[in-house]
Design a protein that fits this description.
Elements (H helix, E strand, L loop, with lengths): L14 H7 L9 E5 L14 H7 L7 E3 L5 E3 L2 E8 L2 E6 L13 H10 L17 E8 L2 E6 L6 H4 L8 H4 L4 H6 L9 E7 L3 E6 L12 E6 L3 H9 L5 E3 L6 H6 L3 E16 L9 E2 L14 H10 L2 H8 L4 E3 L22 H10 L6 E8 L6 H14 L2 E8 L1 H9 L5 E7 L6 H8 L19 H11 L4 H17 L4 E13 L2 E3 L12 E3 L2
Parallel strand pairs: 1-10, 1-11, 15-16, 15-17
Antiparallel strand pairs: 2-3, 4-5, 5-7, 6-7, 8-9, 9-10, 11-18, 12-17, 12-18, 13-15, 14-18, 19-20
Length: about 525
């Protein structure tokens, strides 16, 4: 990430990148896309869900854009700075117009900051990104200031996560008005056409877009849940781009002279969580099937043994078909908060058996691991491999794979002893997984909101809080790395791998693969 001291971001230096990346003005025929996930609404603030946000990005620009590797790039804001510890000032881009030709101003930003956390019946609110703002001040038509409740260095990152809507068209609009298209007046590169839920969405290019018009006169996005259907549509020429290419079809798409594979390492970390509660863990017994007298996972030696029992490279090569990178920490290699001090743990089954014996389990124990079977890439297959690896070191493991909705509900109630899951790091720095997965669960503050293992380490909590109150980027990175090192050496979770995001693309097109898994028409251009 391009970061500067005191939370100032290198905004002005990045401005030329937009111009260089602008596509040619001459319109090409319609781009045809097939995506795995349908959306729940076209209202950009209704549901904080990755597929919704990716679709919204075609119509509504944020103040700050994220590039393919989630580095911050000027969007509707051309620059931003921390005036003092609790005040951020954003300078807005002049000359930007809404799809109806009216001018974009700071009043639209102020309205969005009010609207985004207050959409009725939102299943997942954008308030997460806005609750730190205590006061919004419109200084002039192209300057806006935010006063925060405390020191908040992640303000630029958080304001890159949702689109700005028109006050004129949004004040009287409900979510239904966005779904029908009536309120779908944005500043984005495309204008809304139609949306038929479960089937397709259409859009037309915005000829007045502030970086220049996109190369595609129109875009049709079809929603295809079936991986086989998406691959067949690509290979038959019915579509130009598909997302979520199955790892088993990589070779098939690469061998076809009409198609190619686009890929990049994902921000999504796949991990194992174990029960940290002081109780008789529900899915652990001795080798005769009797409850143990204590929860074995509260002993760090048992957690270390589990990590050593996992052959990460075998999972990458044999289960993920090479479409993953083994990891020993939270962030992808080279990202903000990644450290070379935490390489992927080496596969060491003998060491795992030794640690289990030292912890008082020389004969091991019985365990059930729970995972989803329809959420993450090869999730059930990975679970089966994990079960076999743990069984080899003496932890006789049964695998139970469930539909994601069933699995996540039970996991959130701490009904399981071990789970396999994933976390997408949309803030592009480790405050997200540290604060959500490893910080002590606290309903009042929201910390540890996804800490389904109930891991707790006061020193990790202290460092997460310190990092979130540190404006200096280099200092904050050092704090977060220290928190990560403590949590990983304490085996607060068992990191496994980062997925590799895969798209199938028609030859003759250039696709910029994104770490956030978003499938965007803006990421595709003709090769010539």
């Amino acid at each position: 990430m391009a970061l500067l001291k005191r939370g100032r971001w290198l905004a002005s230096a990045l401005l030329p990148l937009i111009a260089l990346a602008s596509p040619p003005a001459v319109a090409q025929p319609t781009l045809r896309i097939a995506v795995e996930a349908d959306i729940t609404s076209t209202d950009p603030h209704y549901h904080n869900l990755a597929p919704n946000k990716a679709v919204s990005a075609h119509f509504f620009d944020p103040l700050i854009l994220q590039d393919e590797q989630q580095r911050l790039v000027p969007g509707l804001a051309v620059s931003w700075r921390a005036i003092d510890d609790t005040t951020w000032e954003f300078k807005l881009r002049e000359g930007v117009t809404w799809h109806d030709g009216s001018p974009f101003t700071a009043e639209d930003v102020a309205f969005t900051i009010w609207r985004a956390p207050n959409v009725p019946n939102s299943p997942s609110s954008f308030g997460l990104y806005i609750r730190q703002i205590a006061e919004t001040t419109v200084v002039d038509a192209h300057t806006i200031r935010f006063r925060t409740q405390g020191v908040f260095p992640l303000m630029p990152v958080y304001l890159s996560t949702f689109g700005i809507v028109s006050r004129r068209h949004g004040e009287a609009a409900a979510t239904a008005d966005y779904n029908t298209g009536r309120a779908m007046i944005g500043t984005g590169p495309y204008r809304f056409g139609t949306w038929l839920q479960g089937d397709r969405l259409t859009m037309e290019r915005n000829p007045a877009y502030w970086t220049g018009a996109q190369p595609w006169a129109g875009v049709t996005m079809r929603f295809m849940r079936s991986p086989a259907s998406r691959v067949a549509a690509l290979l038959s020429g019915d579509v130009d781009l598909i997302d979520a290419l199955p790892t088993s079809d990589i070779g098939r798409v690469e061998r076809d002279p009409r198609t190619q594979v686009s890929r990049t390492v994902s921000n999504r970390n796949m991990y194992v969580l174990v029960d940290h509660l002081d109780r008789l863990s529900p899915f652990v017994t001795d080798r005769q099937g009797r409850p143990l007298d204590r929860n074995p996972f509260r002993d760090v030696r048992v957690r270390q043994a589990i990590s050593l029992a996992v052959n990460r490279e075998a999972i990458v090569t044999r289960v993920m078909d090479g479409a993953a990178e083994a990891t020993g920490q939270l962030m992808p290699r080279g990202w903000f908060g990644w450290t070379p001090s935490l390489p992927p743990p080496a596969y060491d089954p003998e060491g795992a058996r030794r640690l289990l014996a030292e912890a008082g389990y020389p004969a091991g124990f019985n365990l059930t691991i729970h995972c989803s079977n329809n959420r993450y890439v090869n999730d059930e297959r990975i679970c089966q491999a994990l079960g076999q690896m743990l069984t080899r070191v003496g932890i006789q493991t049964t695998v139970q794979a469930l539909p994601f909705a069933t699995w996540i509900t039970a996991a959130s109630r701490q009904d399981y002893s071990m789970i396999f899951g994933g976390w997408g790091i949309d803030t592009a720095e480790p405050s997200s997984p540290l604060g959500s997965l490893l910080a002590t669960f606290d309903r009042a503050t929201g910390q540890g909101a996804s800490n389904r293992s109930r891991y707790s380490n006061p020193e990790v909590d202290r460092l997460v809080a310190e990092g979130l109150a540190t404006l200096d980027d280099e200092a904050r990175q050092r704090v977060f790395i220290r928190a990560t090192e403590i949590a990983m050496r304490d085996v607060g979770l068992v990191p496994m791998h980062h997925q590799v995001n895969l798209w199938g693309v028609r030859r003759g097109l250039i696709h910029a693969a994104r770490a956030d898994e978003w499938t965007l028409a803006m990421s595709v251009r003709p090769a010539n």
